[in-house]
Amino acid sequence: MTDISISESTNVLRNNYTGHLAYIAGGKPYVIPITYFFDEEDNSIISYTAEGHKIDAMRKNTSVSVVVEQIQSMVNWESALIHGTFEELDGSTAKQKLHQFSEGIKAIIKRKEHKNPEFINEFSSKSYTRGNPIVYKINILEITGKRRET
Fold this sequence. Notes:
With 150 residues, this protein is an alpha+beta fold.
């Protein structure tokens, strides 16, 4: 296993849309899968969720990490580790970032999976019977990565 450059780590982030978000709640670490979009201009990760455990925890402790993996096989993979801060978005900014999230992921799916999803529910299973989605971003403070190849 070897370290990869910031540029290579950023490519892992750029070319994927699922990862694992780590946060602290009640003094315990939690890691959960998320769907995200990497906003290169803002150097952040955009995602959304509903009210609940994760959002409550990130509101209290904004320090988070995200891991994204690009796995070809057990002996051929790359991963990126992001350390950053949670920021909840609202109003027109939230609406604009959610649109960017949706369009960005659709472009990745079209390029990598040769599918053409039209709606966000085709790549995200979240439903919002309890109100509007909470749009947030992770402001990237540090990115590192690893690679294993044989």
